Amino acid sequence: MLVPGAVVLLRTPQGRFEAVVGTTELGASTPPDTGTHFRIASNTKTLTAALIVLLAQEGKLSFDDPISEYVPETPNGENITVAQLLTMRSGLYNYTASTELAAAMDADPAKAWTPQEVLDIAFAQPPDFPPGTDYEYSNTNYALLGLVAEAAGGSPLAQQFQDRLFGPLGLQQTSLPAIEDTAIPDPYSHGYMYGGSAYALVDEPYPADMQAAARDGTLQPLDYTNQNSSYATAAGGAISTADDMSAWIRALVSGEVFDPEHQQQWLDSLQAEDPDAPDGQQYGYGISYQRFGPNAAMYYHGGELPGFNSFMGHDPENDVTLVVWTNLTLSPEGETTANALLPTILDEIYAGLSLAPSPTPMPGPTR
Fold first, then answer.
1. CATH number of the domain where residue 314 is located
2. H-type alpha helices, the chain
3. What is the spatial distance between Cα 324 and Cα 119, in angstroms, rounded to a whole number?
4. Residue 364, domain member (yes or no)
5. Segments forming the whole domain that contains residue 283
6. Residue 75 belongs to some domain of the structure
7. With pLDDT > 90 as the criterion, what percentage of the chain qualifies?
């Protein structure tokens, strides 16, 4: 896949296992490790959703609240609930699907984006379906939830993450940067991608000539390390390490974040993404779930933005926690690089646990 560097962190009842390959920077020979900082992209949604659940637990909001109570200009906002935003069922247009956004990011990679600017892009387009009638992954939902959290919690999103999540759980290497901040804390990995931002944001496939040039080395990937991630903020702007992400996903799934009542509501929020495939991927309050074998299932999320691709998951039945990240968004063939590694990694894990995996497809990308 021509990936410059990758990290795999696995925790099972048999112990902790790490696999690292490559380098954090092209032209250098600095291997990544589980303490290397990277942009976690849509794994941030697990944090935003958890904060919303905590605010509900404290009685500061309700899952049934209409978004119009918090962002009055939201189209049809009186009929879109917080729960529908959390579960990707609002029908609102996904602003990262806009070629306008990708072009602006490429023209000015350091540009700071406010939530209102990205919402203006979304609100200028008609909705994709009436609220609650379908599922569609949309970053617009989580841009709105960031504003809900700030209004209900009474302080900036980054501060609430620190006070309610990072601090209590000891996630000392995880942060949500200020909108003007394009840096990543040391030690960090550079992040790379072939071509412009649209290839990550709009699912635009690589043309055949680009694929060929990338494979033969005549086309080099671009360095997206310091592209401003504020366009994603509550939907995908956080920075972390494999160590912290492993601790986070295990705590979240194991019930260390919410009280028992709200932990059950979080678990019960899962719904099939495709109603015709009830045993396939499910999405709930900022979390995906899939059973991929007779004795194995994971609660998980993934992340993709220009420069990085990642996956984190926890299987509570077998006490397995897995984090994978790479510093190349897409392979020349257009595969999301960390997710492409999952079938091989999961087969190895469950073979080692003497559990026969099923041919059920592995989790797909969640951006």
1. 3.40.710.10
2. 44-57, 82-86, 99-107, 115-123, 139-153, 157-160, 167-169, 198-201, 208-216, 233-236, 242-254, 260-268, 337-352
3. 31
4. no
5. 5-352
6. yes
7. 87
Kindly give the pairing relationship between strand 192-193 and strand 38-39. Answer: unpaired
- Domains in the chain, number: 1
Residues 233 and 215: their CA atoms lie apart, in Å, by 33
- Domain annotation covers residue 108: yes
pLDDT tens-digit series, residues 13-47: 999 999 999 999 999 999 999 999 999 999 999 99
Q: How far is it, in rounded angstroms, from Cα 166 to Cα 97?
A: 30
Is 172 part of a structural domain of the chain?
yes
- Where does residue 350 rank: exposed (0-12), middle (13-18), buried (19+ CB within 10 A)? buried
Could you give the CA distance from residue 281 to residue 160 in angstroms, rounded to a whole number? 30
What are the tokens at 310? 């990642």
Per-residue pLDDT tens for 151-203? 999 999 999 999 999 999 999 999 999 999 999 999 999 999 999 999 999 87
- pTM of this prediction? 0.96
Residue 97 and residue 235: Cα distance in Å, rounded? 14
Residues in the chain: 367
> Using one digit for the tens of pLDDT, what is the confidence trace for 81-140?
999 999 999 999 999 999 999 999 999 999 999 999 999 999 999 999 999 999 999 999
